[in-house]
């Protein structure tokens, strides 16, 4: 169903569509005004706004059956989504003449039904003609619009037009009223499912939620002349969660199949280091046991970089619910993918678990390097292996989350200050040093600054670390601000990452397909798999008792340990 895709804007005018595609590669699909039944692809490419007609044709496949095809230039597709997915995934040009490509959808935040009513689709093209006065009076205020103009003018009934949802509380006509949401007219009562969660490692806490009715003094009305691209009172999923209360006084929602799938709010981490049984670690262990560290270093030196990258990617995708997400798990989450869950309010525990894995992975790899008390050449060889793993994660696996974690280990000040080790790397492993300094590090900086994105066709896990830090700033365990938070591009970078989150949330199916394709036929090795498990790494770093301590305390203490290890390898120069 084309209407289910947020990049399909229905009957909006060409002027409105041009205001939505503000950046290079932005695109949307709208209904054609001049050719009813056809569609128009609007995109921004090389400082120009381009419109491409997508023609709908009916093909007689047999004497009895017909099928519909959609064509753009000489290419035909069975559906408009198939056309969009082809061009986004392959980065191919829309037409040979223009060379234009599409990368990021300009998503709507209004239902198609509102747009159809607002733009008078049944009235023909004349319904879309707006005077300059009307254009000034009412402007689109969807979050995808750059203007966000506020207006206090009234329509013919005397009721105010809606202002942008981003207005200050003092100016928001609904700010003094309790926001609550009523189920849509076709939704009736139901009962909550009680099936067990498919993953035993995740403890879930159920909340029975009440959705009260929305009350307003002035109910929203839409413009009858079709000139207003109006915004209804916010009814997003996040707003629903904010309005929900722990009560069963009102009947819960019933889906078409008779089951209720209210999202389950997770309050307990997926990681259980105290209950973790390991082949490499005894039931009770102390932090940084020498024998375990030695075995970990041996395994890391022996493992093939691509095999290590596959183990890391599978663990990452399993934790983020990109892979092997059962229908029951999707019902529990309330969404179809972990990529969408981590953008929502009730995805907080998932965000925290991902941050835990990210920092634990980077610290573990840093300890592997700093704990190598041999020669500079031995440490350089281990450093080279870590660089190779980072390169495989980036290029072969398309796992930007794992790539960022491995790169964080290399960029830690305790590791980057080891001048003699890095000199040995440049001398013994010149290609690896050049790869790190000229390719990997600049690429990560571009990702963080929002100046570069990954090709969708190769990505299994997108670059969500900036988003995690933005949404869970108090829980993000790092040393100071992120690099992209303090530069000249900080505001632009933040806006880029927030915009990218909307796109990432809708592409969970593509990431899953990419991950399954790259991991097809992959057989895990028990010891290598364990090497990159977060439960194992927590036990290795903090021991059986310390692994259960407060996260902030654990990370702050361990940065002191890393500094001590680094200073032992290369004592800091004395200041005179």
UniProtKB/TrEMBL annotation:
UniProt name for this protein: SH2 domain containing 3Cb
Compositionally biased tracts (Polar residues): 154-196
UniProt-recorded Gene Ontology molecular function terms: guanyl-nucleotide exchange factor activity
SUPFAM superfamilies: Ras GEF, SH2 domain
KW Cell division (keyword) present: no
Keywords recorded for this protein, A-Z: Guanine-nucleotide releasing factor, SH2 domain
Domain of life: Eukaryota
Domain annotation SH2: ranges: 7-106
Disordered: annotated span: 125-196
Keyword DNA damage: no
Pfam families, sorted: RasGEF, SH2
Residue span(s) of domain Ras-GEF: 304-572
Single GO BP term: small GTPase-mediated signal transduction
